[in-house]
Each structure stands twice: as structure tokens, then as C-alpha cells.
Amino acid sequence: QAELTNVKTPWTPAKNPTLSRFINEIVHGEESDVNELGEPNSHFEMYLEAMQQIGANTLPIHQLTEWLSYGKTLDEALYQLEIREETRAFVRFTFEIINSGQLHKIAALFTFGREDLIPDMFIEILREMQSQGQTNIDKLLYYLERHIEIDGGDHGPISLQMMQEICGSDAIKWQEATEV
Length: 180
Hints:
Elements: H1 17-31, E1 33-34, E2 40-41, H2 43-53, H3 59-69, H4 74-80, H5 85-100, H6 103-115, H7 118-132, H8 138-167, H9 171-179
Antiparallel strand pairs: 1-2
């Protein structure tokens, strides 16, 4: 969002209003959607509430966000967390790409590693849960269904258009995006 819009004061128009609109629509949905009660909530908070409802251990993510808010670096916080090494590597890779500052790589990570992938993955999770007859999972069902609806209906297609706008006909950017 910082690269595609203008979040500085004084505000001036974004260089590419199409990309600015795309990313602002995505951020709006991720940071200020509505939960199953119709209350404003971020997808992150909805996810945590759903995980708590089904009895998942959310302590590591709470510790991570708390430590980051106190000024620890991401690496310091990740090092202290009791999490699987694969999880640590996933987060490190994500932030390695973000910190590269290369917009086409960041957009590829977001688009192909998240928005375009998630709806199909969540549909399979929902099918499995329904076939097992699990109960007391209303928050998780809402979260998954909302992501399928938003990512499959809006965010996925918008992020694909964003990729087209960012990479255009640059074969090197497309190759690097594919590698990410």
C-alpha cells in the first residue's frame, strides 16, 4: 500500500490510480471487514477468534505481535517463539521478499502465495470439516466462507489485475514473480 498509494502528508495523487484503487480495496477488506456479528473486524482478528474457538494454540501469534509492539525486531521475536522451523522459515521468506522493496515480487507473493491460492484451499478445509460433522466452529466457518467470498470474488481477480499492471510486458519481472 505504501508503494502504490500516497500515505504521506500532505497527500498528493498516486502515480497510478488504478493500482492505488486495487490495493486500497484489498486493504479495506483485510483491515476493516465485518465479522459474523456484523461488527467491524480485521481478518487477522477474525482468524485468531476462530482459532481460539476451536481450541488452537494462539499463544505464539499473541507473543509475536506483543513483542513487535514493544520494539523487538521480527528476527528477535521469531527466534524466541516456540514454533516449528517451517513456520519460522515461511515468515522469514515472506519478509525477505517484502524487505527487498521490489514491488513485482511483493505483489507476486501476495497474489500467488495468498489471494489466488486461498479460496481453493479454504473450500477443501470447509468440505472436510463438514464431512466430519464438526460443531462449535461458527467463527471458523464464517472466516473461511468470508475469505472464499472476498478472495475468490474480489481480491483474487483484483490482485491478478494488479500483477498485470505492475509487470506489464516485462519478461524479467514475470520470471522473478514466478520464482517468488
